[in-house]
Amino acid sequence: ILADPSSSLCDPEDLFLSLHPLCPVAGRVPGLRPAEPGEFTLRAFRHGKLDLTAAEGLRDLIGAQTEAQRRQALRQMEGDLGRLCQRWSHTLTQVGT
């Protein structure tokens, strides 16, 4: 098993194994369980690796039905909307002072 905690989107102290569902080892390791839907995204958000707009972009990418939806979701995941919101927040803070 190779692990690079600095590149993990989740808690670097957690260990994640990618196993085939029919792997006989999967049912024999105490405490081993399948991930819940959205669990890795939630962990990444909680550990500050994704902001809310990027997490929503991932959700939108999974549900995209057209090429335009896919491109928009990718832009959101890459931080376009998050950066725009940060600029607005900065501007509003400056106006308020």
TrEMBL record:
<dbReference type="InterPro" id="IPR027368">
    <property type="entry name" value="MnmE_dom2"/>
</dbReference>
<feature type="domain" description="MnmE helical">
    <location>
        <begin position="52"/>
        <end position="95"/>
    </location>
</feature>
<dbReference type="InterPro" id="IPR025867">
    <property type="entry name" value="MnmE_helical"/>
</dbReference>
<dbReference type="Pfam" id="PF12631">
    <property type="entry name" value="MnmE_helical"/>
</dbReference>
<dbReference type="GO" id="GO:0002098">
    <property type="term" value="P:tRNA wobble uridine modification"/>
</dbReference>
<dbReference type="InterPro" id="IPR027266">
    <property type="entry name" value="TrmE/GcvT-like"/>
</dbReference>
<protein>
    <submittedName>
        <fullName>GTPB3 GTPase</fullName>
    </submittedName>
</protein>
<dbReference type="GO" id="GO:0030488">
    <property type="term" value="P:tRNA methylation"/>
</dbReference>
<dbReference type="GO" id="GO:0005739">
    <property type="term" value="C:mitochondrion"/>
</dbReference>
